[in-house]
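Morning!

This is the sequence you dropped in the shared folder:
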Amino acid sequence: MIKNLNQKGTTVFLTTHYIEEAERLCDRIAFLNRGKIIKIDTINNLINESKDKHIIEVVIDNNISDIVQLSEKLNKKFSYISCSSKNDNTIKIISVKPIDISPIVHFLSLENIFIIEAKLHRPSLEDVFVKWTGIEIDLMMKEKEKK
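The structure's back. Tokens below.
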């Protein structure tokens, strides 16, 4: 009902502690902390502005013997990224600038590593909220449950 009203041109002010609900229903978001608006913008602008790191997770065929060693090889080969093993078959690639995945894929191919999946992670609206307010969502929800 709220979404329909908004789509028909009605301005709706929605107050919620549920970030997913706000992201689904709102065009613009305002973060409040102690009764003061600390940040207000569109969802895309808030998320894009909060990208202080670019993160790609690469899932590889789990036949590799040492993923830590592979992460170290990637770090040596590509100085602009920082790699770490997330688990036995996932490498997390982090950079302060956008990551061109093609040279990394080529390098892994030369190492006979089969890539199952590569996915770009963008910050969630929850990540943006925590960045601007310093309030962890889990802590906020626990406080709300106490009342």
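Headline: Residues 2-49+125-146 form one domain.

More detail when I'm at my desk.
O.
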